[in-house]
What does this fold into?
Amino acid sequence: MSEALAGLKVEIAAIQADADAAAEGVARLADLPTTRARFLGRKGAITALMQWLGRLPADAKPLAGAEINALKAQVETLFDSAQARLDAAALEAALSARRVDPTLPGRVVARGATHPIQAVLDDLVDLLGRLGFELTEGPEVESEQYNFDLLNMPASHPARDMQDTFYLDGGLLLRTQTSPVQVRTMQRQAPPVRIIAPGKVFRCDADTTHSPVFHQIEGLWIDKDVTMADLKGVLTAFLRALYGDSREVRFRPSFFPFTEPSVEVDVWTGSRWMEVLGAGMVHPQVLRNVGYDPNEVQGFAFGLGVDRLAMIRYGMTDIRYLWENDQRFTRQFRGGLR
Ligand code: DAH
It folds into this structure.
């Protein structure tokens, strides 16, 4: 073996050892290309070995070339596995930084429930819709005119004292009843009229059975030949649909300024009569106030308290539960307790 070939072999062994240590020593993926280039790059140690070839006798060249190629292949494998090792480490680091633990249970999203008042309201509107009443609405901030005067309750009228009103500036107030929607609807459209108007009403009053905010549904049916018999028939059908066919219903004479005659309607609960709505034939003065001719058209109106119906349906003793939004209470209605 020539001296030059022996020198080449020593050099190859040295590069091999150097490359081993270097590939193993790379700690960061970003450092790998430079380290690799120190051996395999255009100015790298292995490329430099090619200069030995020139110094060798012709017959030694094939062997020397083969040795250099073998070294090159080995060092390439070394750096390929270093690359694989660092790739795996980087992936591992990324995964543990996100701390995904697929064995943990999923997050529970709290599920809401329809509020009992809304549930009752939805049922009532649905039922009255099937009896032919069209849904409408009116404003919660009203004028004295609409809330009282046009409903045949002038300022001097003692019935105004029956309702503790929240007054606002400029002759405005929070409506104490949904009845003003009757007036607004009749002013807007010619008869026949057959509407219901659900919504919030406000009175300055609060105890276990009175809330300063509560809900009513107003009903109104005006046409050429709507009579007291229709009032009885429609309201009885409504209450029977609500409480069952065998439920006893009673009509009691009463007084409201905007109806004449007026009635209050009670339902037998099994132990006592319970008042559920007020109603009556719309007062001729109210019809005149909206430009209707009471000799041409007439009809009936009714107003019912939604919160009371909800309390009765769910057996509640204190109306304030409906407003506190205590989840121990509201959660019980999840999935529609009916
Ligand atoms: N507005 C009345 C109240 O709040 C309820 C009522 C009674 C409405 C008789 C009516 C009716 O339409 O005819 O006490």
Notes: Residues 177, 179, 218, 256, 259, 278-280, 301-303 surround 3,4-dihydroxyphenylalanine (CB under 6 Å).
